[in-house]
Amino acid sequence: MAGCGSIVRMGTPRKMTVRGRRLAAMRRVRELALVGKALASTGHPVMAQIVPARFCNLSCAYCNEYDKVSEPVPIEEMERRIDHLGRLGTSIITISGGEPLTHPKLDDVIRRMRKVGAMAGMITNGYLLNVDRIERLNKAGLDHMQISIDNIEPDDVSKKSLKVLDKKLQMLAEHAEFHVNINSVVGGGIKNPNDALVISKRALELGFSNTIGIIHDGDGQLKPLQPEEAKIYFEVRNLERRSYSRFNQFQEAIAQGKPNDWRCRAGSRYLYICEDGLVHYCSQQRGYPGVPLAEYTTADVKREFVTAKSCSPNCTVSCVHQVSYIDHWRSPQTNTISPGNGLVTIQGAS
Question: Phi and psi dihedrals of 188, rounded to 5?
């Protein structure tokens, strides 16, 4: 729940092959190009997060984004959805879940994302990684992987622990040709906030980038940090400064229990597509607008760009913050929506 994949994040270079270094350089050029495209035009999504499988092999207590019964989305349908995202001009497509590595045709999903010209990202719990799987992701063209690690030792809140995943991280450091970001978390029942600091230092030691997120409630809303949690949060944030996610102040305000005044571009610059193929503002506001992706048009993208969301002041969904930040300086929102209460036009909004 705390992570969102990557936009532009750089960590200490890992020991990589000549091919790996070449791919990293090419990826950086593509990332800069997508930022330039976003600055030049507001009529396309910058990032779409799409779910190929709601099923997850884990059951983290704080998560509301998985089940234990869903079948994976058929590959033909996934390809149709990705093709439509390509027609909308989407720059980054990130696959999430559930656990995306449970999809039997995941390599084909990634290839399709690259075929439509998008950066290909994935959010995973990492449990199902092995050397062969990493090599297949290399060949498929994965650009970015994010793994959220919640604690050092597994407990009743989360099994995503450094103890279990460290060998997987070592495999990634040795074999992955894609960028890897490790996201640690504080708040929301995580028993030992200091675990986030240990996890972040291990990520940097292995040559990955690191981020830290704040676990939100079931609606993606603010849960203020306790003093010790806030102390650890800011200490981790100061470890590494080469990350796009550090260019804004959203999470800092959240850590201090303060609301943010910003222009949420969900439904426009950021799309969340569930396993049923519906477009939502984000994973925590499913049902709005709830339009089938196949029917979503550039006109919808432009309408949502100027639509303020009432849930935005206390939102903690960092991926929407980061994508929206590209346009923080322009286009005042002249409509507003309270999920469940409809759309209202604001006269003279600023």
Answer: 60, 35
Q: Is 212 helix (H, G, I), strand (E, B) or coil?
A: strand
Question: Sign of torsion, CA 18 24 30 36?
Answer: negative
In whole angstroms, give the CA distance from residue 42 to residue 63. 32
What is the value of pTM for the model shown? 0.88
- Helices 106-115, 131-140: inter-axial angle, 10-degree rounding: 20
CB under 8 A, 24+ apart: contacts of 159-163: 159/58, 159/59, 159/60, 160/58, 160/60, 160/125, 160/126, 162/195, 162/198, 162/199, 162/202
b/e map of 159-169 (b: 16 or more CB within 10 Å)? bbbbebbeebb
On whether the CB atoms of residues 90 and 132 are closer than 8 A, the answer is no
Backbone dihedral angles phi then psi of residue 36, each to the nearest 5 degrees: -60, -40
pLDDT (tens digit, 9 = 90+) per residue, 223-268? 667 888 888 888 888 886 454 445 456 777 777 778 888 999 999 9
Q: Helix (H, G, I), strand (E, B), or coil: what is residue 25?
A: helix
- 225: tokens are 């940090």
